Amino acid sequence: MSTEESPLLGDQPQPNTGTQCDALPTEDVYNRFGRGEKKVILAIVSLTGLVPMFVSGCFVPLIPQISRDLNSTPATVTLGVGLAVLANSLGVMLWSAYTSFYGRRAIYLCGIPFTILGSFGMAASTDINSLLFWQFVQTFGCSGGHALGAATIGDIYKVEERGSAMGTFFGATLLGLAIAPPVGGASAQYWSWRGFQAALGVWSILQLLLLAFFFPETAYPGSRGIDRARGSRKLFVWINPLRCLAFLRSPNIMSITLMNTFALISEYALLVPIAYTVGAKYGIEREGLVGALFLPNGFGNFAGSSIAGYISDKVVRRAKEKRNGVWVPEDCLRAVWIGGLVLVPISVTLSGFTTAYVDGTVGLIINLVCFFINGVGVDMVLTPIGAYTIDIMPSRGAEVMAAITAFRSLLLAPVSALFIPSVETIGVTATNSISGISAILGYSLIWLTIRYGAQMRAYADVGYPNFDTGALHDDGVRETGH
Question: Which parts of the chain span the membrane according to its record (predicted)?
Answer without folding.
Answer: 40-63, 75-95, 107-126, 132-153, 165-184, 196-215, 253-276, 288-311, 332-358, 364-388, 400-420, 426-448
